[in-house]
Amino acid sequence: MAFRDGALLVVLGLCLLYVKSSEANADVEHNNRHDLIVKLMEVHNKLVIPRTPVQLSFGLVMRAIEDVDEKANILRISVFSDMAWSDHRFQWDPANYSGIYSVSLPLNSVWRPDLVPSYAKIEEEHVTVAAFVDGTVRSYVPQRLSIPCSFDFNDYPYDVHTCDLKFQSWTHSGNRINLTIIDETAASLTYHRDNSQWEILSFKATRTATTYPCCPNEEYIDVSYRIQFKRTVGEYQVRVVTPSIITSLLILVCFLIPPLSGGRMVLCSVVILGLLLQLAILNLTVPIRGPNAPFMADFLCFSVFLAFFAAIESVVSMNLSSWGSLSGSGNNNGDASKDGEELVAQPKPNLFLMQLARIIDLVCFVVFTVVFAIGGAIILNPKTE
Ligand SMILES: *[C@@H]1O[C@H](CO)[C@@H](O)[C@H](O)[C@H]1NC(C)=O
Ligand SMILES: *[C@@H]1O[C@H](CO)[C@@H](O)[C@H](O)[C@H]1NC(C)=O
């Protein structure tokens, strides 16, 4: 019994010792880390650029298209800005600091390259950077970019857009900050979150070094990104294209309804209203005026005019038919009319006028079909011209 108790005590004691020693190790590491950071930050001044040339590699990782503001011509994306640069002040011997090979520091407490995008507006999170034992500093900052783009909606809703984005150091030439792309797949789509309305077609980076005549020894380096994206068509097909075409086709049906039927004018009016409604809906999403306006808008305006002429033709043909059906046979030859007889004479329909109305309808149907087909083809397929 005593022996077992003793063994238990020894085991417990060993465990306690182990816990104590690992606690002690953790304390040592903690103290070392503290000393290291204090020592590093003692000499670090974030206003002073490290030993030049600073080797800076830069990459953007696409997270998502957040918003495409079609009216304001702004593309909003969220990205990770991935930067690694050399700063000789972050160097230490890990053997002196319990093997610590990296420390995390707040982004705004260390020097960072003054890389800015031209034109685009930038919002970023305040995160930490990692400084490594060899003097490399790596930052991976979530950013939100608002990029002004000129969108071309001509092919709406099959439109493809391209936006450009350029990063360069605000004040330093290539001799002081050597900007390079982090690797060939720098414009990465790996972490890209899908957007239900937009699909990214490509995201490419290029590095350009420019020398100006004033200073032949100095290179100015920039990294440009080109984003190409398109609308995912499915929903627009249902919401915009099909209703517009169906409404426009109803114009032709107008001519097939008998002229004396009241439904004809009703249909014409409904078609005009429907087309105007489609235009208004289109105007909610994209600008429908200007050189970049969708051809879809031209098509709808053109259809409104056709429907307007169809309404006028309906009035003409309705009047012809009703004259035809009301005018008596007596009107045809003057001498046949006698006193008294005209009152009792049953008015015989004037077949000629009624047939004329039908013929005008048919001719209009054919002409409108041809105009509609040609006009629609030209407006919606301008590239074939
Ligand atoms: C770091 O350790 C080396 C030997 O490993 C020693 O020569 C040096 O003085 C130490 N530096 C500091 C700052 O303690
Ligand atoms: C800049 O970086 C590139 C690629 O790493 C290298 O070839 C070039 O020599 C560097 N230029 C300077 C001035 O350090």
UniProtKB/TrEMBL annotation:
The chain crosses the membrane at residues 240-258, 265-286, 292-312, 359-380. This is Neurotransmitter-gated ion-channel ligand-binding domain-containing protein. Residues 35-232 form the Neurotransmitter-gated ion-channel ligand-binding domain. GO terms for molecular function: extracellular ligand-gated monoatomic ion channel activity; transmembrane signaling receptor activity. GO terms for cellular component: membrane. The keyword Hydrolase does not apply. The keyword Membrane applies. Its main location: membrane. Keywords: Membrane, Signal, Transmembrane, Transmembrane helix. PANTHER family: NEUROTRANSMITTER GATED ION CHANNEL. Residues 1-24 form the signal peptide. It is found in: Membrane. It is a multi-pass membrane protein. PROSITE patterns: NEUROTR_ION_CHANNEL (PS00236).
